[in-house]
Amino acid sequence: MSDAALARSVPEPEATLAARLARRRIPLAIAIGLLGGSFYALLLERSLGVMPAAFGADIYDQMWLAILDGRLDLPARVLRGEGHYAPDGTAYSYHGVAPLLTRALFDPFVTIGTTSLAPVSIWVWATLGTAFYHAALLRMSGHWDVPEPTSTILGITLWLVGPGVILTSNHPFYHEPVALAYALTGAFVLISAHAASRGRMTALALIGLGALAAIALHARPNVAVGLYAGTVLAIAAALWRAWLRVLPGAVLGLAMLGAGAAGYLALNDARFGSATAVHGSFDESEIRYGIAFWEMESANNARQLGFIEHGRFNAGRILPNGAMYLFAPPQFIVTATSDHAAALHRSYTEPRVGFIRLEAPRIGMLFYLTPWIVLAGIGLWGVRRHGAAFTGLLLALGGSALLTLSYATITLRYHVDLWPLVFVLALLALPSLARTRTLPYGIAFTGFFALGVMANTALYYPHLLRVYPETGFAEWSEAECQARASEIGLPAARIGYVCRDAMVEPTGG
Q1: Whole-prediction pTM value?
Q2: Degrees, nearest 5: CA angle 154-172-84
Q3: How does DSSP classify residue 289?
């Protein structure tokens, strides 16, 4: 037998075979991704055309310019009720600085402060995030020998019936850190999937996990909790298996985690005077939430008392909030049923864990992420058989999801924070798709159903979180800001600074 024939007769290692099968599907996946990214751009273009403007689309631009100017505070007319205020009216955003990465990238080419970079930033992170999840899907499809047509359908479904559509349907301030965390967790899951298909975690992968978690802490701390835990568990498992081989990566990965935490604490201290203070409060304190500082709502109302008496996070909210996140009827399709579900949720939670804000549009993931929820259910059933390589990741993402579910607000963008757990469970359903011929058709059917609901949601969502007059999101003129400042008793010498104009980068800056 010739050497070539002998080589062909030797079975290909499973990890190598998985990689080869994944590579074979790459050209089609790239085409799907390009079309998906273009679709996301069209959604954001539509959002830009909706008036009035999205709330806070200039906040991160102004944060970037403030830092370049050597400050961390922003004009009250930029932050309004979303700011957190010192007694003299100095305004800070409590959100992290990681979304400024796009400003650092585009600063040499644009004049920041003239046009909002929020839509571009959201598009970058939503597109990258979906691409990372798509790549993880391809990797595990090759690993479990899922037929190429099935993995292609799943890839298309991911772009059309996934969090990227929610993120790019509207471009308020709140979507930027969520979109960045979505991209970071996508990369985190991709690294984990690559390691699972190869059967080992490399030193370089551990460094990558640590870096992603550290950046996430400055975008979405609730998501970062899961990524930090996932990184530590991955390092522990890798050291257990081959500690000498991965020791340098483990040390650098832990150093990344430490650097991220140190930076986070230092930023808190610089803004709020304490490393452990992450935001203002509703009651009298050194830093107050803008809604309370500007007396935009009555003191000690149900929402404020819910936070004060029951905490921002409370385990008693997990089950009822989880039911709403999963099963809430689509508000813009069956309004009466949705209202009934909201009333039922409130009647149970308010006496026990205080007021929980239910923001529009109320909709459960079962209705617009239907194929992924079905696959996650199948994957949950198969965890014991196929989930060994993902055990640490599932535990970590589960912890992050529980933290999100325990919060005193339910809103559509928070669904994106729950997505990583849903997706990883869905990956564990791939062996069932590989073995069963009829199951892919059922998943495709649920995808068509979800697409209709997603389209309805994307149609209405851009009209929310806008600067409508007579709302908490309304824009403030200089005169209105000064009147507000005088009314609450700010010193006259401070009012001009507090109510100053937004910054515009000097030409050529």
Answers
A1: 0.94
A2: 130
A3: E
* pLDDT at residue 1 tops 80: no
At 26 the pLDDT is 84
Residue 17 has pLDDT above 80, yes or no: no
Kindly state the helix (H) or strand (E) to which residue 401 belongs, with its residue range: helix 391-405
Instruction: Measure the CA–CA gap between 373 and 401, rounded to whole angstroms.
Output: 15
**Euclidean distance between CA atoms 171 and 42, whole angstroms:** 12
Per DSSP, 171 falls in state: -
Parallel, antiparallel, or unpaired for β 91-92 and 357-358?
unpaired
Query: 212, 226 in Cβ contact below 8 A?
Result: no
Q: How far apart are CA 506 and CA 509, in angstroms?
A: 5
Residue 385's Cα: distance from chain center in Å? Answer: 29
Q: 3-state DSSP call for residue 488? A: coil
Do 287 and 281 touch, CB atoms closer than 8 A?
yes
Q: Which residues pair with 387 in a beta bridge?
A: none
Segment 129-155, tens digit of pLDDT: 999 999 999 999 999 999 998 999 999
Contact of 408 with 357, CB cutoff 8 Å:
yes
pLDDT in tens, 388-427: 899 999 999 999 999 999 999 999 999 999 999 999 999 9
Contacts of residue 101, defined as CB under 8 A and 6 or more positions apart, other chains included, come to: 180, 215
d(C-alpha 178, C-alpha 415), whole Å: 10
State the distance between the two ends of the chain, measured CA to CA, in whole angstroms: 69
Q: For residue 464, what are the CA distances in angstroms to 16, 121, 458? A: 48, 19, 11
Question: Is residue 7's pLDDT more than 70?
Answer: no
Cis-peptide into 52, omega within 30 deg:
yes
Element (H, E) at 329: none
- Is 94:291 a contact under the CB 8 Å cutoff? no
State mean pLDDT over 265-269. 96
Enumerate residues 6+ apart whose C-beta is below 8 A from 110.
117
pLDDT of residue 509: 42
